[in-house]
Design a protein that fits this description.
heterodimer; A: about 200 residues; alpha/beta; Aconitase, domain 4; seven-stranded mixed sheet; B: about 475 residues; Aconitase, domain 3; Aconitase, Domain 2; 3 domains; 17 helices; about 15% strand; leucine biosynthesis (chain B); Aconitase_4Fe-4S_BS (chain B); iron-sulfur (chain B); lyase (chain B); 3-isopropylmalate dehydratase large subunit (chain B)
Chain lengths: ~200, ~475
Amino acid sequence: MDKFTTLTGIAAPMPLVNIDTDMIIPKQFLKTIKRSGLGKNLFDEMRYDSDGNEVPDFVLNQPAYREAEILVAGDNFGCGSSREHAPWALLDFGIRCVISTSFADIFFNNCFKNGILPVTLPQDAVDVLMDDARKGANARITVDLEAQTVTASDGQSFGFEIDPFKKHCMLNGLDDIGLTMEKAAAIDTFETEMAQARPWV
Amino acid sequence: MTGQPRTLYDKIWDAHVVDRQDDGTCLLYIDRHLVHEVTSPQAFEGLRMTGRGVRAPDKTIAVPDHNVPTTDGRETHIDNAESRIQVNELDKNAREFGVHYYPVTDVRQGIVHIVGPEQGWTLPGMTVVCGDSHTATHGAFGALAHGIGTSEVEHVLATQTLIQSKSKNMKVEITGSLPPGVTAKDITLTVIGRTGTAGGNGHVIEYCGQAIRDLSMEGRMTVCNMAIEGGARAGLIAPDEKTFAYVQGRPHAPKGAAWEAALNWWRTLKSDEGAHFDKVVTIAAEDIAPVVTWGTSPEDVLPITGTVPAPEDFAGGKVEAARRSLEYMGLKPGTRLQDIAIDAVFIGSCTNGRIEDLRAAAAILKGRKLADGLRGMVVPGSGLVRAQAEEEGLDQIFLDAGFEWRLAGCSMCLGMNPDQLKPGERCAATSNRNFEGRQGYKGRTHLMSPAMAAAAAVTGRLTDIRELTGATV
């Protein structure tokens, strides 16, 4: 997993609430057995018409946002299924950070496994950043994970909360499985004890 | 751990902590890992690339469900090349890593969340995960069960643990008794309508109260199944005698002395008097009506006696979302829900694909016909549910009514296989999500109970089940 330290980039505004994982990556693209290549189908049914042509109005099709690295989104982003194809598609498109007032739980966790930083901020802060994002490529938003801040193009800065362990893993690009493998002895002990206490498991 | 009153969630959590870091992050042991073909190939590939194995193949259960066709001949051939590859990959991975496996040739194959409980893999007090958000279903047994992403699937395969931070506790109490015509599906939809799809974010819900106690195990599974649609990490119901009776004798349930030992522990699995809940929602069962969804979010729930709302009825970001939903659904504000004509009926899914669901639908359809021009599909949740239904003659009722009687799988709940709506088609569905495109590109979904879906099938429009059964409104 790539490290996430700081990011300055174009933010695309997606004010719609409850953007679900079926919108982010529709089911027909879940048939892959790979993690890569999903960026072209990110938001597929919003981004293309039934003939496969780009919908010009859709934000990521607009010239100013084609290189967006940040999404500023409406409440409850990523609700729905557990499909990690959603963060894979975002990452493959080039999105490394999503900012919203809240995220669905599984999507939120999946982001951290892929070096995408989900940032939760209060409504008034998201409103400011959404307005900033609407300015297009001229407005660049800066996300600093170490300092836990998001800074709008006019210098206005907002602090955000993050779980310290998740932050540590993101800053250092750590592999969860490798970290857990170091605790193999504790897992062995737990299994031995459970074989006594709950043998039916 | 003693002294402080604990919730059911606290108790199951505490019983599975392998390691606790200073910042509170825990390594949680996973008792059962369910695997299907869509969210697992990259995880198995990850194991291969890193030279890791499956730590506990005996606690890992694989079954293909999302992609599989529900028509005859699938045992030997799947037309869609990508689906075929995914199913073949699961087949290869299950055999190579030696996990329990139910291929489509096995009568026990079905939707993973129906197979788990059916085979006795799901037991009270367990931690159960799967790369699928509807893993919440298993919470009906008093098991801590939730969906995970593919990276976490790989993590569980390799270590039989998950790195977790604890969620908050939320209590949803349904007091009193359900009126006639109102089912578990109406309870769970009503709760989501009340709390919203983000209402449970960051929480694990414990459902309780008389109306929950009164539900069968299958009804409880329906309720917990949709905890995720309410945003919760998991839904839980404390196990009781009904739970134990359901579990006893199933192939992988404990037997003899182990059964007695298990019962002793299971009986302690309930929230202590005075345990703290961060959020409490109480709904009187008497206030719950048969409901349907009108929009493209599971929170867009209304009693069937209602009318389509207007965007201005909402506030904030929901105004634009409602406008978009109405346009997508092709509905005008003020339309009576009962006047909405449908094109298709889907009965099945991990929410409502069990035998009691099929019985409820068949009870309405017996001696009646699918309305002219409608397409109807019944997809049992597992091969065993299908066999049971055939033994009871339910298949004949569905066939006589004009429905298709399919093989087990997820089918048109998410339309990854050929079972999909056509653009613009409107479906009365017993599944769990009404998202844009969920059942097929531009397809329109109205969620409801099996009995309500059957009623809609007969009249050709969204229908109040109480009209057909004569129950008083």
